[in-house]
Every structure is written in C-alpha cells, then in structure tokens.
Amino acid sequence: MASVLHPGLILVFAGVALGLLHGRARAALALAAPLAAIGILLWVGEGVHWSGRYLGIEVTPYAVDALSRLFALIFAIMAFGGALYALGQPSRLELPAAFVYAGSAIGAALAGDLLTLFVCWELMALGSTLVIWSAGTAPAWAASRRYLAVHLLGGVLLLAGIAGHVSETGSVAFVRMALDSPAHWLILAGFLVNAGAPPLSAWLPDAYPEASWSGTVFLSAFTTKTAVYVLLRGFPGTEILVWVGLFMVFYGIVYALLENDMRRILAYSIVNQVGFMIAGIGIGTELALNGAAAHAFTHILYKALLLMSAGAVLLQAGRRKCSELGGLFRTMPFTTACGTIGALAISCFPLTSGFVSKSMISQAAANEHLLWVWLALAAASAGVFLHAGIKFPWFVFFQKDSGLRPPEPPLNMRLAMGLFAALCIGLGVFYQPLYALLPFKAEYVPYTGAHVVVQLELLLFSGLAFFVMLPMLRRTLTITLDLDWFYRVFANRLVAGSTVLLGLASGTVQSWIQAAGAAIRAGAQRHHGLDGVLARTWSTGGMVLWVALLLAGYLLVYYL
Amino acid sequence: MLEHLPALQVVVPLAAAPLIVLLRRPRVAWLLASAAALFAFVAALVLAAEVASTGAISYHLGSWPPPWGIEYRVDALSAFVLVLVAGVGAVVMPYAWRSIPAELPRDQHYLFYALQCLCLAGLLGMTITGDAFNVFVFMEVASLSMYVLIALGRDRRALLAAYQYLILGTIGATFYVIGVGLLYLLTGTLNIADLAQRLPELAGSRPALAALAFITVGVSLKLALFPLHLWLPNAYAYAPSVVTAFLAATATKVSVYVLLRFYFGVFGARQVVESLPVTGILIGLSVVAIVTASLVALWQADFKRLLAYSSVAQIGYITLGIGIANESGLTATVLHLFNHGVTKGALFLLVGGIALRAGGAGFEQLRGLGRAMPLTSLGITLAGLSLIGVPGTAGFISKWYLVLGALQAGQWWLAALVVATSLIAVAYVWRFVEAAYLSAPDERSAPAGEAPRVMLIASWLAVGACFWFGIDTAYTVEGARRAALFMLGGLP
Questions:
Q1: Contact present, A287 and A236 (Cβ < 8 Å)
Q2: A552 domain-assigned
Q3: What's the pTM?
Q4: Is residue A232 assigned to a domain?
Q5: Of A147, A185, A534, which to mutate for an interface test with B (greatest number of B Cβ within 10 Å)?
Q6: What angle do CA A50, A55, A56 make, to 5 degrees?
C-alpha cells in the first residue's frame, strides 16, 4: 500500500490544494498531509517502488533505502512543524509554495535516478523562490531574483553533468561517482551550489533572511540538506569536500560574528553547520558518513527551532537587529526557553541532539588521524557556541533591556516550538532510534567520559571568552580578539586569518564579477537591444548583400 | 483510393483553393479549407502508419516510372514532417474561424482560405516529392502564397515585411533552382534517388560544389539561418495571427527538411560530413544564431516579435544538430523540428488571442494579463516551459538529444552552450511572466475577457501536445531516430 503512494507527491499535491482552500479545511490539510507522508515513510519497505522507461533509459522515481528514508523522513517532519508554525501566516502563497518545496525535497531524497533528481531539484528552486518572494517586500523580491539566478545556474551545471554522465555510462542510476570526468565535476559543482559552498556561499545569507517570519523556517531545512544528501550518496570520501567543508565552517563563523541581523546570523550559521556535514562526507568513513547524516537530521530540527524563535520575535516585536533587541525574556519566557534549547543543541551541549551527531564527525576525523581537520573542527565548535550558542540568545533575549514588551506568539507557534524543542532534547537523551535510522550500523557511543568532558571544557572556555570580551565585542566586533581566547590559540589564528582573507578576496572577486557582468550586459544591449544593429529592420539591399557574401564565402571555402 | 493517397495528400488541398475562389462565401470557404486540412492530416497519419509498418512508399505520378516521371516518396523522414505540417494545418483551421473575421475585412476571407490551402499544398508537396525540380515548383507555390498571406496583416508594416520576404525568398528559390540546374547538367536526372546514385563519382567536381553552395545558401534563406534570417522577424510580427502560427510551425521546418534531403539524401553523408567543411560552417552559424537571436529576443518590446527572434534561435538548435551530424544530433534535429513546431505554434496561437483582445502584444499591453486572460496566460507560461526545455516538456526531449549528440561528438563546449543558452530562454519567458502576473494593469493593458472559445481550444490542443510529446516520447523519438538512421545510411 505504502509503495503506491509517493510521500513527496502527496505534499506537492497538498500544496496545490492549499492554494485553493480556506480556513479550517486548509489548516487540517496542512497538518494531515505531512503526517501522511511521515506515516508512509515509516511503513514503506526498502527497494525500488516505481520504475519506468523514459527516453530509452531506466528511471526509478521512487526508491527507498536507509539513507533516503532518513532524509525524506526529516523533511516530512520539518514540513509538519513548519506548517504548524505557519498556520497564521497571512500570505496565501507561502504555505502552498513551501509544500511544493518540501515535497520536491522529499522527491529528491527518494529519487533513484539523476533525471528525477534534476526535476525535483528545479522544482525545489521554484518553490523556494516563491517562498522568499511571498514575503511581499521589495528586498525580498530582489533577493528572490538573485536566489533564482544562482539556482538556475546550479541546475544548468547539474543538467550538463547528468547529460555527460549518461553519454558516458548509458545509465542515469544515481550511484556513487568518482571525480574522473568533466561530467562528474559538473555534477559535483551543481550539488555544491545548493550546499552553499564557496565561491557561491553568499546566496544563502543574502536570501533566507528576506523571507517572512515563517518562510525562513522552511528555507533553512531543505535546499542545503538535499545537497548534503546527494553528496552523501554521490561523492562520499571525496577528499576535496573536507577542505570545502572546513572553509564553509569558518566562513559561517566569521561572518556570523560580524553580523547584527539575528536571522542573518542564523543563516551564516547554516553555512557553518553544512560545512561540518560536508567535511564529514569528505572524510568518508562509515562513522563520518553516519555523523554527517545524523547531523543533517538534528541540524534541521534545532536550526528550525532557532529560526522559529527568531521568527516569533520578528513577528511580535517587529525588529530584526540585535542592537535593537534585548531583554525579551521578561514577556516571552517560552520563546526564550525554546531559543535557548536550540542554541544549546547547535552548540552540541551534552543531552541535546547536536551532541550525539556532531561528535561522530570529530571522532571520525580523530580515528583517521586527520589532526588538522580534528583541530579545526574542535576550534569551530567553539566558534559555533560563540555566534549561535551565545550571541544569538544573549543579544536577542537577555543583554540590556531594550524596553520592548512583546507578548508570546500564538498557540500554534508555541506548539511548533515546543515540539521541536522536545525533539532536540529527546534525541539528545534517547539517541538510539536516530542511530537505528542511519545508513550504516552505528556502534558509536556518544556519552563517554572523554567526549563529555572535552565538549564541556570547550564550551566553558568559549563561554567565558564571550562574557569577558563582551564590551569589546559589542564595540568593535573584531574577530581575532575573541578567537584569541580559545585554548588552541595558534591554530585558530591561522585558520581564522586565512578565512577572513579568503572572505575578503571572494568579496572583491564578487564585485569584479558584478562589474564585468554589468559591462557585458551593457555591451550586449548596445548590439542586441531594440535599436541595436542586430535587432534593427534592415534595408532590403542590406539583406541581399549578406546573401551574396554568404554565397561567395561558401563557394570560396568549398573550392579551396 | 488508398494506393493514390500520396497524390491525394497534395492534390486535395491544392484543388480546394480554386474551388474556394469560385464559391467565395466566407462560411463555405472555411468549411472547404477545414475539410481539406483535415483530410490532409488524416492522410498524413495513414501514410505514416503505413511507412512504419511496411517501409518507404514510392508513388509514380501518372504511372510514369522514375526517373522519367515524377516520383512521390514517403519514407521515415518525410512521413514525420508530413504529420507535423498537416497536423498544424488542421489545428489552425478552427482557430481561423474566429481569428480571421477579427483581423480581415469580410471580402478578403475567401482569399485567405484559398491561399492557406495553397500554402499547405505547397509545403506538403515539398515534403512528399522525390523530384528535385518538383521541390522548386512546390516551394514557389508555398512561397507565393506566403507572401500574400503575410501582406494580409492589419499593420501597414506587413506590406514592407512581405516585400522583403518576397525579394529574399525569390533569391533563395533562384539559388536553389540554379543548384538543381547544375546537378541536372552534371547527371542528367532530377530524381533525388537517381541523383544520389550518380553524384558520388562526380562528387569533387566544381559544378557539384557550386551546386552544393547554391542550394545551401538558397535553402538557408528559406529556413532563416543566421545571418539570412533578417526577413523573418517582421514577417512573423506583422502577419495575421493564424498565418504567423502556421508559418512558424511549418514553413521553416519544411526548408530544414529540404536541406536534410539534399545533404544526406543527394550529396550523401560521406561528402557533406567528411570531405567538406559544411558541418563546421553550420555549427558556427548555428551558435551565433542561438546566442544573438536569443539576446535580441530578450530586449524586444513586443511579445510577438520576441517570439519571432526566439524562432531564429531555435532554428539554430535545429541546424546545430545537422552540424553535429551523428545519430543523436540528427535525431535532435528531427525532434526539434517537430517539438519546436508544436511549441511555437501553441505560443503564436495564444498570442493571437491577446492581439485580438488588446489590439497588439506589446509588453505594456500584457501588464496584468494573468487576471484579464487567465487561460491564455497560463497556456503561454506552460508552452514557455517547453520553449526553455524544462523536463517533462517536448522542448526538453530535443535538447536532451542535442546535448547527447554534442557529447558523443566530443564537443563539450557545444553541450554547455546548449544548456547555458536555455537560461536566456528562461529570461525572455520570464519577461512574459513578470508582465502578466507580477505587474499591476494600467490603462494600456488588455481589457478583461478571454479569447473566443474555439481559439482557446485550438491553442490548448497545441499546449497539451507540448506536454504530451514531452512525456510519451514513443512516437516522436522513435520516428526521429528512424529518420536519423535513414539519413546516416551512407555513413559507416
């Protein structure tokens, strides 16, 4: 039974129906459809459920194994939580678009072939663009266009790669690929664009914070995590991913520390967290891959929770800058508690979900004797605690009293936050069900004395650093000052320094690219625009001249 | 009756034209023209089915055996093109029922229907005949009627467009007939199959090369290959809506077919592909066509003209497949000939509805069209997806084979170009979406109200075909592949 129904299609169709429904029926469908998808995903057996032939190639649009089930499941859970949270969203477009977005993400996770994956990939780009756009503001409109442009570019790279792959192998089955041909490089590049990897990381913090208070919650979950999923399946153990991942980790930290907009801080933190996962994929051992998969699962939950609390603040207080917020714990204690739980989870505090997943990646690096990688990951963990674990809740909920006294958000939003907070804690304590879902057999034990003590020390020292340096942090917001206080001072300086340089360099390169783009556009418009030489109506004589020239050219070339 | 079907395929629409002129009454004229078009479509389908089951059909006009008499030949390639031309011819007739009265004065209706029948007969004749000079005759029948059809447009600029097309079309036809004349002098035959047998021994001779050059340039003019496309945008933009839709979907496509016939059926793949730089030049011109025409389309102020320039770019994709000249490339050419015909037909039919309601299709008139004409706007957006080449649409199938062909030929950059230029198509289709759905209507916008129902039904049939042939590819891909293999028969 379950193999007849495709959970992704259920959400896509539900999204279309949501566009037509109103009131209670709409709310009921928005909650029932993701629950149905979750149910199917729990029940459906492994194997290929749908297959067919298209263009003479075997396609399998619905194939389930442990890895695809894990990702499809968390996407469905996310769709449920997001829908519950967004019930009060006045925009008529956002929830339908988000459902199409979530459904196509599930479709991508269940795609057994690259063509289906590509279709879902493009549908995701469309759905997410509409989610951003439905915020209805001018910056959101502009951001959605930039966002779409980047993703269409990614889609083009991917499609070109898939075509190359098919012409080489004659099959579109989505299997592990080696970087041995231009086609596979193109596919990897297409995947990495969606992951927010350099040099195109900027689309993510550019676009996500411009969505509505509920839109950002949806956006945080699907695009980057689908990219993690396809990398896990297509390119495990590809070494370059370790370095791409580490770059993203520090890119996210540096910019998040410099940032003032609370949701942009969290958006940079997505890049940072996805960096951990990609580094894990690059390490490529069973433990590392399990860690990356588990981390994607837990990250969706706590990042959604963080963005839900930020969205609640935005909705109730109408401010998004850290410098304008503060002291909200007085009137929003529940939101504060949920935001804090999310912050603890992202910092990998023991007994939260982040701890049971991320420590797997670090342990995998240690097992492989990748000293520098391990050191960088450890330093980055402290950095995460600084920017997301303390900076976000401290400046938004505590700190000085901003004088704002917003009430708690409506019940459905509190329920959604409560549910995800419970999941963050629950998975931190009872991690066995999560480990059972992982693609490889997990023999990892997170709660050993060493793991817990190391993590606590790390958090303690970086927490100390934050509060000691608080006055300076607020005044100058420089990077080296607070990173100095880590107990691995030297490594940090090196990495952070180079990251800042790389970041600045990529900023410069981006402005060059923009200038060059503008020049090309102007030149193209001069010749191709309405009055350009190529678009004008020519005189008949001019046209005939071309005919004569071409004939002469052909004769000349043939005779020679 | 059935054995004479190849002749009837052309004779019925040809005979309908003078009948219409004699009877003159608009209603009767429409009825006759529709019946002829419908008959042609059914005949084409029957012929295609027969070719698929029993192989090529050779029909000897007046029972004179070739090479003395004129031979009509239906094979894998021509059957495919016949179905496209006759199909589009049949779909535009119900559309014309409402569209023509809105655009032409009553006393010109019968002229339109007569010319439409002549044009259809000419295009079908060009496709079905197996005689090189007969191709010229039908080319003239089709072209002369096209000049007048274009000149019927309401806009006075239609006259200039028709005049320019007349001059260039005549030059094209003349070049073609010069080429055929040279071949006749060399070989003493006009039958295409016969030419193909006798030409190889004379292949390197100068008259043969000159013939190839004249035919290439002449036919390139007809199919609007860059830089010989200059007649096309105005002709498409100012002709009556039905005419634009019919011509865009069929006329250039039949010319591509003639080019394929001569390259692969007469001169032979060996000479064209291997010993002369034909394919290199074709690839170069196609690439320029794709890039420049797409960019020009991007900045057009009128949606109909935008689509006309987009046609020039799409023809570039079609000829690119010829240039690549392997099985996938030629499959892509034949497929795109069909799929683009369907797609552009749908788009021009829908734009005709807008022109009817708003008096034109400038972008300022499209503002807020999503509310004023929801079905038309949705149709254009969906057909636009096929124009871009989104998976699940017909446009995707042909581009997919084109990319595969480029990769199999080892031309990575061509594959990248095909995929990347789709982004320009995204941009120009987006311009419509932006105007129709995201702009507030103002006083210049089209007034509320859908296009007449028959026009919508005809248009949506074509839109449906864009998706049908994107999902069920059995007929198109199989037909195109057979045609490609048939053409490459000369290659090892």
A1: no
A2: yes
A3: 0.82
A4: no
A5: A534
A6: 80
